[in-house]
Amino acid sequence: MVSAAHEGTEQVFSKIKEILRERPQAVIYDLGCGRGFWGKQIKLRFQSVKLIGVEVWEPYIGEARSGYDEIILDDIRNFLPSAEKADIILMMDVIEHFERSEGLRLIDLSKKKADHVFISTPIVPYPQGPIDGNPYEVHRDSWKPEELEALGFEPLCLGKVVGVFYWGRSS
Q: CA–CA distance from 27 to each of 7, 90, 101, 156 (Å)?
């Protein structure tokens, strides 16, 4: 969702700040980092973290680069199974781009690879096709808050269009 309104941004930063009190040098994966909105915002606020973006659409990487310590050009379905553990995984405006079974697999893998997982996704029907020639921007599924809550996620913000959800190993 390239044009997402970023509902819940402050709630995400507040929760990350809480996590970083115990792990100031945290490793964060921003899966499907796109043009780097989250990376740039996180680096402005939390310089001590190691921030790794993973993006499948090469044209986005140039714009995103400045927000990350490292950017990996890969499909997150390929990256995540062999990735090293991270402290935090962000999947912001990502899971709606996958069929349900793939989305569930990515959520499960994320929970195994990190102690903290953040997800944002439209919580109302939000059809979307390719954007700027990017076929990965197509929305293939939609998620309801109760579906993510059933997977152990707590809603941080339920906006008019986007919901932001958090899962923590200790929550």
A: 24, 11, 27, 21
End-to-end Cα separation, the chain, in angstroms: 28
Among 99, 78, 81, 80, CA closest to 91: 80
Answer for the pair 163, 11: CB distance below 8 angstroms, yes or no. no
Give the span between the Cα atoms of 113 and 94, in whole angstroms. Answer: 17
Residues 129-156: tens digit of each pLDDT: 889 899 989 999 999 999 999 999 999 9
Helix (H) or strand (E) holding 18: helix 9-22
Closest CA to 31 of 42, 41, 43, 39: 39
Buried b (16+ CB within 10 A) or exposed e, 142-152: bbeeebbeeee
Span 55-94, pLDDT tens digits: 999 999 998 988 899 999 999 999 999 999 999 999 999 9
Which residues make beta-bridge pairs with 27? Answer: 50
Hey, what amino acid is at 134?
N
Do residues 145 and 163 touch, judged by C-beta distance below 8 A?
Answer: yes
Q: Which residues pair with 155 in a beta bridge?
A: 165
